[in-house]
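dude i think i finally got it to work??
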Amino acid sequence: MHSPPIATETPDPNDGASIIARLDRLPATRGVWTIVGLLSLAFFFELYDMLLSAYIAPGLVRSGLFTTTTAGAFGMTGIAAFIAALFAGLTVGTLVAGALNDRFGRRAIFTWALLGYTAASVSMAFQHSAAAISLHRFAAGIGLGIEMVTIDTYICEFVPRSLRGRANALCQTIGFCAGPIVAGLSWLLVPIAPLGLEGWRWVVLIGASSALAAWYIRLRLPESPRWLVQRGRLSEARAIVERLERGSEQGQGMPLPIPAMIEPVAGAGRFAELFRPPYRSRTIMMVVFNIAQTIGYFGFTNWVPTLLIEHGITVTKSMAYTTIIALAAPIGPMLGLVIGDRFERKWIIVSGAVTIVLAGGLFAVATVPLLLVLIGIVLTVAGNVISFAYHAYQAEIFPTRIRAKAVGFVYSFSRVTAMLNAFAIAFLLRQGGVTGVFAFICAAYAVVIVVIGAFGPRTRNRALESIA
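look at this
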């Protein structure tokens, strides 16, 4: 186990590095978990909006707005185009997220991105052409992309090092509860038209409740002390840390230990650092990982109902089975609450990828509905174990001065991949059926196993400044 450094002198409480050290020595207190909970609530709404693509797809096809497949590779009337529009927006969002976060702060960008994608989704619910729906989905994707980078960065910077794994697991557990909820709502609403409005539109509008939560979260969410220190706003950072310290001491009934000394905080970072040692190898590793992981994860998640239909299951039963599979979505990150800080995150990622390769092969050849559902649950749990682990991992292996830029850059490759992947899966499904799709998925996860297992650094219970 990696032992924290021992303090040899009392650090200057007004120094930026000392403020960060004081933040890192905080125990698991109510104040820290409240911040994680607020970010998790936002992540819930974000995943609801992202995951609804798969579940409303049958409704979009049924309404005549889209088709399951298209004659051409990039046909704009197929469901693949609807899915690709989201990920095109996510690509733009993740690319600009770093610059926006570094300039305006995590808190402001977090709030405006949440409101922005909600407005775009509400507008999409009232569109009546494939082109207009895809355009609004693209706009929503921009906000979602910004939001995801911001949440990952926020949690990584705010949570003490001993809690990073569990904090990300809690965020993902709450977030992935959106999966069964949006699946269940789609199962109930997509086949019908309450008040004359098609069911898929109701599913989208229900997610708009995120706007009601946005300002509540903003009022209770402090700025990242690490970002404030980086910007030279030491008095603001110190005030936030002192508030958390007071809450911790009152809760424990005893003073906190002297914080360990850490390296001085570096100045502002530049994007070019991503391509210089020691970060170049990490940047390449995470770019390759994001491409491969996205092929596998969204190749299954966004196509579950369609893959079940291709197995000969009716549309109605496919939606029911998909809902059952989606109920397992929070289980993966729930496991993270137990294992998140006990094992190295790189090996958690590798273990999840091995499980998917084995289960994916079985899903491709299975024909019994019950077995398909059980394997689908295993794939969902393993995929979300990887999700909670890598969201923490890719944020903590880069320093604060370039963290948002780095996460946005490497994550943007997953968004581009997901956009193109939608067309690739549609093509493979048409040419090779479910077997062809899962051969593609399993090959992608084999790449994940190699790249993270061989090249990933250790991060468990290490200060962010030490990892960087």
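The chain is about 75% helix and 0% strand.
im so relieved honestly
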